[in-house]
Amino acid sequence: MGDLVQIALGLIGGIAPPVGPPRGKILALALIGAFATTAYVAAAFALWFALAPVIGPALAALALATLALVLALIAWGVLALIEARAKARAEAARAAAMNSALAEAAGVLPKLMADHPLATVAVAAGLAFALTPSRPEA
Q1: 136: which DSSP letter?
Q2: pLDDT per residue over 101-113, tens digit each?
Q3: Counted domains in the chain
Q4: What is the pLDDT of residue 85?
Q5: Confidence (pTM)
Q6: Are 70 and 90 in contact (CB under 8 A)?
Q7: For position 88, what pLDDT does the model report?
Q8: CA-CA distance, 121 to 113, in Å (whole number)?
Protein backbone atom coordinates (compact mmCIF):
# COMPACT_ATOMS: atom_id res chain seq x y z
CA MET A 1 0.00 0.00 0.00
CA GLY A 2 2.88 2.37 0.77
CA ASP A 3 4.33 1.93 -2.73
CA LEU A 4 1.01 2.89 -4.29
CA VAL A 5 0.87 6.08 -2.21
CA GLN A 6 4.44 6.97 -3.20
CA ILE A 7 3.62 6.42 -6.88
CA ALA A 8 0.46 8.55 -6.61
CA LEU A 9 2.33 11.35 -4.84
CA GLY A 10 5.05 11.20 -7.47
CA LEU A 11 2.49 11.51 -10.24
CA ILE A 12 0.66 14.48 -8.76
CA GLY A 13 3.79 16.22 -7.51
CA GLY A 14 3.03 16.05 -3.81
CA ILE A 15 0.38 17.84 -1.84
CA ALA A 16 1.02 21.49 -1.06
CA PRO A 17 -0.28 22.88 2.21
CA PRO A 18 -3.00 25.51 1.91
CA VAL A 19 -1.59 29.02 1.78
CA GLY A 20 -3.48 31.92 3.34
CA PRO A 21 -3.63 35.37 1.80
CA PRO A 22 -0.55 37.52 2.54
CA ARG A 23 -2.36 40.21 4.53
CA GLY A 24 0.78 42.22 5.30
CA LYS A 25 1.68 42.50 1.63
CA ILE A 26 -1.87 43.54 0.71
CA LEU A 27 -1.83 46.26 3.37
CA ALA A 28 1.58 47.51 2.22
CA LEU A 29 0.42 47.66 -1.42
CA ALA A 30 -2.73 49.54 -0.37
CA LEU A 31 -0.65 52.10 1.52
CA ILE A 32 1.75 52.48 -1.41
CA GLY A 33 -1.21 53.04 -3.74
CA ALA A 34 -2.74 55.64 -1.42
CA PHE A 35 0.53 57.55 -1.03
CA ALA A 36 1.25 57.42 -4.79
CA THR A 37 -2.23 58.76 -5.55
CA THR A 38 -1.80 61.54 -3.00
CA ALA A 39 1.57 62.48 -4.50
CA TYR A 40 0.10 62.51 -8.03
CA VAL A 41 -2.81 64.74 -7.02
CA ALA A 42 -0.51 67.11 -5.10
CA ALA A 43 1.85 67.35 -8.09
CA ALA A 44 -1.07 68.03 -10.44
CA PHE A 45 -2.37 70.83 -8.19
CA ALA A 46 1.11 72.31 -7.81
CA LEU A 47 1.67 72.28 -11.56
CA TRP A 48 -1.73 73.83 -12.19
CA PHE A 49 -1.07 76.60 -9.66
CA ALA A 50 2.33 77.22 -11.26
CA LEU A 51 0.93 77.37 -14.80
CA ALA A 52 -2.34 79.22 -14.14
CA PRO A 53 -0.79 82.71 -13.64
CA VAL A 54 1.39 82.30 -16.73
CA ILE A 55 -0.99 80.81 -19.35
CA GLY A 56 -4.38 81.05 -17.68
CA PRO A 57 -6.46 78.49 -15.84
CA ALA A 58 -8.08 76.88 -18.90
CA LEU A 59 -4.81 76.33 -20.74
CA ALA A 60 -3.16 75.12 -17.53
CA ALA A 61 -5.91 72.49 -17.16
CA LEU A 62 -5.50 71.55 -20.84
CA ALA A 63 -1.72 71.21 -20.40
CA LEU A 64 -2.23 68.94 -17.36
CA ALA A 65 -4.75 66.80 -19.22
CA THR A 66 -2.38 66.50 -22.18
CA LEU A 67 0.50 65.53 -19.91
CA ALA A 68 -1.66 62.91 -18.15
CA LEU A 69 -2.77 61.49 -21.52
CA VAL A 70 0.81 61.25 -22.79
CA LEU A 71 1.92 59.52 -19.58
CA ALA A 72 -1.02 57.10 -19.82
CA LEU A 73 -0.14 56.25 -23.43
CA ILE A 74 3.49 55.65 -22.47
CA ALA A 75 2.41 53.35 -19.62
CA TRP A 76 0.05 51.51 -21.97
CA GLY A 77 2.88 50.99 -24.46
CA VAL A 78 5.21 49.69 -21.76
CA LEU A 79 2.54 47.25 -20.53
CA ALA A 80 1.91 46.05 -24.10
CA LEU A 81 5.65 45.49 -24.56
CA ILE A 82 5.89 43.53 -21.29
CA GLU A 83 2.87 41.41 -22.29
CA ALA A 84 4.33 40.71 -25.74
CA ARG A 85 7.65 39.60 -24.21
CA ALA A 86 5.84 37.34 -21.71
CA LYS A 87 3.79 35.82 -24.53
CA ALA A 88 6.96 35.20 -26.57
CA ARG A 89 8.63 33.54 -23.56
CA ALA A 90 5.57 31.34 -22.98
CA GLU A 91 5.50 30.33 -26.65
CA ALA A 92 9.23 29.51 -26.58
CA ALA A 93 8.73 27.42 -23.43
CA ARG A 94 5.80 25.59 -25.03
CA ALA A 95 7.85 24.87 -28.16
CA ALA A 96 10.79 23.63 -26.06
CA ALA A 97 8.47 21.35 -24.08
CA MET A 98 6.97 19.99 -27.30
CA ASN A 99 10.44 19.35 -28.77
CA SER A 100 11.52 17.61 -25.57
CA ALA A 101 8.41 15.43 -25.58
CA LEU A 102 8.92 14.56 -29.24
CA ALA A 103 12.59 13.69 -28.65
CA GLU A 104 11.62 11.46 -25.74
CA ALA A 105 8.93 9.77 -27.81
CA ALA A 106 11.40 9.23 -30.65
CA GLY A 107 13.80 7.54 -28.23
CA VAL A 108 11.13 5.12 -27.00
CA LEU A 109 9.69 4.39 -30.44
CA PRO A 110 12.20 1.67 -31.59
CA LYS A 111 11.64 -0.45 -28.47
CA LEU A 112 7.90 0.09 -28.72
CA MET A 113 7.91 -1.04 -32.37
CA ALA A 114 9.64 -4.26 -31.44
CA ASP A 115 7.46 -5.05 -28.42
CA HIS A 116 4.01 -3.66 -29.36
CA PRO A 117 3.33 -3.07 -33.06
CA LEU A 118 -0.27 -1.91 -32.51
CA ALA A 119 0.80 0.63 -29.90
CA THR A 120 3.34 1.91 -32.43
CA VAL A 121 0.52 2.76 -34.83
CA ALA A 122 -1.32 4.61 -32.03
CA VAL A 123 1.81 6.58 -31.09
CA ALA A 124 2.48 7.45 -34.73
CA ALA A 125 -1.10 8.67 -35.11
CA GLY A 126 -0.75 10.74 -31.92
CA LEU A 127 2.51 12.28 -33.14
CA ALA A 128 0.91 13.11 -36.47
CA PHE A 129 -1.97 14.77 -34.65
CA ALA A 130 0.41 16.72 -32.38
CA LEU A 131 2.57 17.91 -35.26
CA THR A 132 -0.32 18.96 -37.50
CA PRO A 133 -0.88 22.72 -37.23
CA SER A 134 -4.32 23.57 -35.96
CA ARG A 135 -6.53 25.67 -38.21
CA PRO A 136 -9.46 27.60 -36.75
CA GLU A 137 -12.88 26.78 -38.09
CA ALA A 138 -14.20 29.25 -40.67
Answers
A1: -
A2: 777 767 776 776 7
A3: 1
A4: 94
A5: 0.49
A6: no
A7: 93
A8: 9
- Does residue 5 lie within any of the structural domains? no
Does residue 138 fall inside a structural domain? no
- Assign 3-state DSSP to the chain and report helix, strand, coil percentages, each to 5: 85, 0, 15
Determine, yes or no, domain membership for 11: no
Q: How far apart are CA 134 and CA 60, in angstroms?
A: 55
Closest CA relative to residue 108, chosen from 116, 10, 61, 133 = 116
Element (H, E) at 47: helix 23-55
CA dihedral sign of residues 49, 51, 55, 59: negative
Domain of 30, in residue numbers: 24-131
Q: Which of 24, 23, 64 is nearest to 43 (CA)?
A: 64
